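User: Teach me something about this protein's shape.
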Amino acid sequence: MTDSFDLLIIGAGPGGYVCALRAAQLGLKVACAEKRATLGGTCLNVGCIPSKALLQSSENYAALTHDFAAHGITATGIGLDLAKMQARKAEVVSANVKGVEYLFRKNKVTWLKGEARIAAPGKVVVAGTEYAAKQIVIATGSESMPLAGVPVDETRIVTSTGGLELDTVPKHLVVIGGGVIGLELGSVWRRLGAAVTVIEFLDRIVPGMDKEIATAFQRILTKQGMKFRLGTKVTAATVAADGVALTLEPAKGGAAEQLAADVVLLAIGRRPVTAGLGLEELGVALDARGRVKTDAHYATNIPGIYAIGDAIAGPMLAHKAEDEGVALAELLAGQAGHVNYAAIPGIVYTWPEVASVGQTEEELKAAGIAYNVGKFPFTANGRARAMGDTDGMVKILADKTTDRLLGAHILGPDAGALIAELVTAMEFGASAEDVARICHAHPTLSEAVKEAALAVDGRALHI
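Assistant: First, the predicted structure itself:
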């Protein structure tokens, strides 16, 4: 036994490292074990941050080659230096992970390097060395979900990890899965010149999103050049030197067909990483999907062992994991940590972006909740017109009786930033009327939020 800690966290992704920082702020002696060579987990290393770097670069390229002409800006000799674009992405990642290292040093969090296993309650072995810990937190995140018959080699058939590292733009990229990751990375390579086909087992993209918004979103992506094969499953993939041959079948049965691709991106979802932690031997309860079962305070059925983030139930979102990390650290320090799961936003970082919080129309109907709807299109927003970004709308759902906000959905420019106002409103129990009464600066995109709130009561001013 070389050292002991008040709290030892396994996993240094957003949930784990934020939990470590908050616990250290509260005076606990904290260690964080990470098997990756750098801190930050999937999000900072091969997920959220590098994908946003490439999304931004590809948006800039698309604007220069297609969009700027409408603004009277023309250019010749435009080229794509993919190697430099990838190098910039790597620099962005490096700056972020080094930032976490700095925060660990600043807050005196001990970084334990190596794979961790819980030997017993209060004992964690990291890279062969045993440490004592009064409390242990599982924050091991998630990994890409495999698909039978589609063997990943991260060269021809890639997950999001390989999809961020391509050194040439594929002629034809086939994305298996019409969810957030597939659409974001598909957007990157489409903008850079690839033909992109999205294959989705269900009859719609982004399942779980408000259906009206999802339908409009698909129309926009189709207009941008993406092709969609809905209600279709991939049953096999054969890799050759020059590409991949996929076998497709209708989801509800029918004749098989072949589809050729240069690169295939497998993005059908993610699953928790819980293997190798010693959980089975300890008797830590898992659910049917391999997630760690916890109570309202993130405690497992084994005293002194907790879990947060993608390892437990709930949306697999970095900010959800961060909030759980803070809440758990505060609970362990004797404070009153809490996460409001009804007000966690979700964002798709395509262009236009899609952002949502709270319930969808479909969920409200299924629950038998009476509601009013307010919608406002960006075509009627002055700033969106000036920008040349008029696709999409703001949609607000409010309780029919009390007018309290129940859900909000934005498809449009900077939707990820615009949703924050509505998340704040929901967190404080605001009504649509409250949002409508707030003075929004003119001309801004946020005026579309105000107008949608006014539209809940049928009194939008600019449409």
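Now, about its shape. The two ends are 70 Å apart (CA to CA). The domain at 157-268 is CATH 3.50.50.60 (FAD/NAD(P)-binding domain). If you'd like, I can walk through any region in more detail.
User: That's plenty for now, thanks!
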